[in-house]
Amino acid sequence: MTENLTLQMDEYLPLRDVVFNTLREAILKGELKPGERLMEMHLANRLGVSRTPIREAIRMLEQEGLAVTIPRKGAQVAKMTEKDLQDVLEVRDALDELAVTCACRRMTNEQFVELKEAMKAFEDATRTDDVRKIVETDEAFHDVIYHAAANPKLENIINSAREQMYRYRYEYVKNPSVYAQLIAEHKSIIEGFDKRDEEALKAIMHTHLSNQINAVRNSIREQV
Amino acid sequence: MTENLTLQMDEYLPLRDVVFNTLREAILKGELKPGERLMEMHLANRLGVSRTPIREAIRMLEQEGLAVTIPRKGAQVAKMTEKDLQDVLEVRDALDELAVTCACRRMTNEQFVELKEAMKAFEDATRTDDVRKIVETDEAFHDVIYHAAANPKLENIINSAREQMYRYRYEYVKNPSVYAQLIAEHKSIIEGFDKRDEEALKAIMHTHLSNQINAVRNSIREQV
DNA sequence: GTCGTGTCTTTTGTATTCAATCTTTGATAA
DNA sequence: TTATCAAAGATTGAATACAAAAGACACGAC
């Protein structure tokens, strides 16, 4: 009975949302590459729907910063220049600092446990070759922190900023030599929360983010 | 939907963008009130277009945080709770600090002149009874700063955060007793830029923003 | 009274159609 | 060969049509 209900709930998702999620995933995972045209008919055929939900999904992607449309010429997957990256990182640096400060003050014990579990999952993932899993567990770790900040608006904005750069981050995570460092940083973060040391946390988050800059920058340079 | 909505036909913009701008303005100016339903047919008739561009515009408003839609029940103008306001202000505080820091480092002489002109325009406006003009010149003053930060991504995010609370801000600006204070704060800001004193600027911006909190909070309480 | 139940209306969701605009292609002329 | 331009095709923009769901309301059973 309850299974039926949840199943119905899934059926209740409007197609535009299904399409939006599908396209969003495809963009984030690199299946749709930066600069690639998003042609309505083409996508509609591939997904087996009409153009209407495709168009609405594109409007949503647009506002997320994942697609750019030129009137009467169509939409394409958003490209990032190095300047764009720098700009987003500047913002994320400020928002991460806020998030970690809030989280430090507001994190519950349950969330702290969750954080340690996420840490373990990430550590386990780095011992496999599954890059996608590594990325996902890393994101999940940070999700716990952002969620603990208990500010949904902040969470939204950070997620949107993350999305814009995460497509360029695979290269960084693919390189096993950085795992040790990432794990160490995550451990420091946990320690910071344990001691409720805001200043230390701010510093670590700052380092943690800036370590990604060059990697992502190279990845962007490769995009022709 | 008490006011008459009219489309400003910029011939080259797609209708969805014209509709989006029209609805956005109407929401920000309070013509469409928080919680008010956005019925497609009604809006379409009012604006003399079909449902298609209305629907696309609603998808855009949604991502801006100005509208909320429940699947198969329709969209409504987003309401803010006190918690929402607090969350947005927390974010804006961090972003304003970043913006003012960047602007302090990057502001050109031309932009400084522009800032002083915007200051004057605001001062002039406070001597009239035109609340809308006062709000607009105040926003323009801050626009100069945000633009001087030379970070379009930051500008976008701040604008989106501003939009979410500006509809609740009229009450604050309506009260002439705060003009003197606002002018004084704006003057301090200009002084800060003149001296390139980042710390002073951060402090002023923080004060400037927190002064608005109670006013907006009251305005939100009044919304039933 | 109130709780369902079925019907009718309203509204949203999606597909389809028609119109406008852009792109491509290919023929022609300099 | 290259530049130009017109026609054809492809693609987007907007309106209309049709389907499905939600809401309103009357009616009857309990």
Main features:
homodimer; Arc Repressor Mutant, subunit A; mainly alpha; globular; 224 residues; DNA-binding; 76% helix; 11 helices
How would you describe the overall organization of this protein?
The structure is a homodimer of 224-residue chains. Chain A is mainly alpha-helical and 224 residues long. Chain A has 2 domains: 2-77, Arc Repressor Mutant, subunit A (Orthogonal Bundle); 82-223, Four Helix Bundle (Hemerythrin (Met), subunit A), CATH 1.20.120.530. Chain A has 11 helices and 3 strands. In chain A, strands 1-3-2 form a 3-stranded antiparallel β-sheet. In chain A, a hairpin with a 3-residue loop joins β2 (67-70) and β3 (74-77). In chain A, α5 (82-106) packs antiparallel against α11. Residues 1-9 of chain A have low confidence and may be disordered. Chain A binds a DNA duplex (30 and 30 nucleotides) through residues 12, 14-16, 39-41, 49-53, 55, 71-74.
Please tell me how large the radius of gyration of chain A is.
19 Å
In which range does the helix fraction of chain A lie? Answer: over 70%
Strand order of the largest sheet of chain A: 1-3-2
The profile of the biggest β sheet of chain A is: 3 strands, antiparallel
How does CATH name the architecture of the largest domain in chain A? Answer: Up-down Bundle
Q: What is the CATH C-level name of the largest domain in chain A?
A: Mainly Alpha
Number of domains of chain A: 2
Give the strand tally of chain A.
3
* CATH fold label of the largest domain in chain A: Four Helix Bundle (Hemerythrin (Met), subunit A)
- How much beta of chain A, percentage-wise? under 5%
